[in-house]
DNA sequence: AGGATTGTGTCAGAAAGTGTCGTAAAGTGT
DNA sequence: ACACTTTACGACACTTTCTGACACAATCCT
C-alpha cells in the first residue's frame, strides 16, 4: 500500500472509537499503530507517529524562552494528542471529538501520509 | 511516547496537588519523577529534571559579574522549585499556585519536553 | 508540649477507556 | 447468482483512570 487514499464513512461506537477501515489498518499495523491526532480548523488530522516527528522537527529553531515563540509552540502542541490503534480501533478523546464536531458518523479522508477525520456536514461545506 | 502533548483539564485536591494524567505519568515514571517547576509570565512550567539541567546549561555562558545577566539568572532561579511526582500526584507549593493564579481548576498543556500549568481564564486570554 | 498548617498515602465511586464476540453488511471468486 | 470470506458495527463486560475525601505524618510556631 502506498499511503492513505480515499474517503470512508465510518461510525463511532458508544465510547467514541472508530473502526479503522481494513485498508488503513494494514498500513498502520505494518508501520506502527502509534499515532498523533491534531485539531485543525474544525477537523482532525491523524499522523502516524513518524510523520508527526518529521513535522515537529520544523519547530526546533523556536526558542522556548521567547514569549511569542512559546505561544506558537503551545498552539501546536496543545491541539495534539497521542493515540494508538488498539484491536483495530482508535479512540478519539472527548475533547477532540468536541473540537471537530464529531457525532456518530465520521468521514475519513486519506491524505497519503496522513488522514483526516471530518464531521460529514463540515466536510461538505468546505468542499463547496 | 513522544513527549507531553495535548491539553488536559484537571482539578487540584484540597491540599493543592494535581493528579497527573495517565499519559504523562508513564513518561515521568520511566524517566524520573523528579521535577523542577518554574514561574513564567503568569503560568507555571514543569521541567522533568533532565530537561531542566539541559536548559540550565544554556545559562552557563552568562557572566556572573555582569549586572543584567545576573538579574536574568536571579529571575530564573528565584522562581524555580524542585518537586516530585508522588503517588501519581504533584504538590504545587502555595507560592507557585499564587503566582499562577491557580484555584481548583487547572489546565495542563503539553509542550513536548515540558508542560505548563495554567489558570483556565489566563490561558484563554493568551491564546486569543 | 500543644495546636495549627502543610504534606502524604490510600481508598471508593464515578467516569473513561479497552477487549471480545456475534451478527449484519460488504466484498470476492467461481 | 451463489457460497464463502472479510470487514464493520453494536453491545457487553471488564479494566484503568480520575476525583474527592479521609486519616495520618511532618513541620512550624508560640
TrEMBL record, chains A, B:
InterPro entries registered for this protein in UniProt: MraZ (IPR003444), MraZ_C (IPR035644), MraZ_dom (IPR020603), MraZ_N (IPR035642), MraZ_sf (IPR038619), SpoVT-AbrB_dom (IPR007159), SpoVT-AbrB_sf (IPR037914)
Matches recorded under PROSITE patterns: SPOVT_ABRB
Pfam families named among the record's database cross-references: MraZ
Biological processes annotated in GO: negative regulation of DNA-templated transcription initiation
Domain called SpoVT-AbrB: residue spans: 7-51
Key words, A-Z: Cytoplasm, DNA-binding, Repeat, Transcription, Transcription regulation
GO molecular function: DNA-binding transcription factor activity; transcription cis-regulatory region binding
CDD domains: MraZ_C (cd16321), MraZ_N (cd16320)
UniProt signal peptide: none
The protein, known as: Transcriptional regulator MraZ
Organism: marine metagenome
Amino acid at each position: 500500500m502506498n499511503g492513505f487514499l480515499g474517503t470512508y464513512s465510518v461510525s463511532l461506537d458508544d465510547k467514541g472509537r472508530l473502526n479503522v477501515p481494513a485498508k488503513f489498518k494494514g498500513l498502520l499495523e505494518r508501520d506502527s499503530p502509534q499515532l498523533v491526532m491534531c485539531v485543525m480548523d474544525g477537523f482532525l488530522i491523524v499522523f502516524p507517529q513518524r510523520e508527526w516527528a518529521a513535522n515537529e522537527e520544523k519547530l526546533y529553531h523556536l526558542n522556548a524562552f521567547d514569549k511569542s515563540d512559546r505561544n506558537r509552540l503551545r498552539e501546536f502542541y496543545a491541539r495534539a494528542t497521542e493515540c494508538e490503534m488498539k484491536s483495530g480501533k482508535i479512540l478519539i478523546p472527548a475533547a477532540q471529538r468536541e473540537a471537530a464536531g464529531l457525532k456518530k458518523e465520521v468521514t475519513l479522508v486519506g491524505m497519503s501520509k496522513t488522514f483526516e477525520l471530518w464531521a460529514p456536514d463540515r466536510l461538505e461545506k468546505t468542499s463547496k
